[in-house]
Write a structure and sequence with these properties.
This protein is α/β, with parallel strands linked by helices and 256 residues long. It is built from 8 helices and 9 strands. The protein has one domain: Rossmann fold (3-Layer(aba) Sandwich).
Length: 256
Amino acid sequence: MKIEGKHIVVTGASSGIGKSLVEFLSAYERVKIVAAARRSELIPKKEGIIFAISLDVSTQKGVDELFSFALQKLGHIDIFIANAGFTYTERLIKPDWGHISDIFSLNVFSPIYSLEKLMAAEGERQIQFVTLISGVAYFPLPAYALYCSTKGALRLFFEAYRFEKNDNLIVSNVYPVATRTEFFEKAALGSVSLPFLSQDQETVARGIINGIERDKRNIYPSLLFRLFLPVARAFPFLIKAYSLNEKRKVSDILKS
């Protein structure tokens, strides 16, 4: 779907990939963008083009408010980019229902519910839904078991949903590798070394925009990951070797 003239919603827009997406998208002609984050004061500003809103999309109330605001400001939505998400770096030791619920609410429930809201709001119009999943949907990452499980759930949901969706909907799944932002620094146990494959947020944002314009079903911002993925899936021992290597890097966390 071409970007020019489109009405776009971006969640998680105050930092990292989301912030870069808003900056790059706002340079296109005649676009209007609703950018959502918990801290809207950090969202890029562009009068008449970017409409920022503070809310929590990990809740039904927050997503409902986002759609009300977006439809009021934009009239309709052409492209929805579900970028908001977070992780923990941790060893799972004690039972904690709320802890599990928090990450699944934002990383899984929110994008799926947002998709349902978009379909209900836009009917038969041509629309595109873009979800930031992750390379860890394919590769287990030690100390990130909950995070990996949320991304695996998203991947399988959208792969199955493609067989059910209406023809007017384009679904694009994005699989970035570790991105050099504050994302990992916000993990529960602080900063850890990045996994082997990593890239900067601008590269990821440009890859997403290129994939949107080409109506790509799956968007792989890292060429190396895209080339390695089919090989690793054909030879599962490579995935195990990767996970064992990452386990050594976070051994202190896993022993604590």
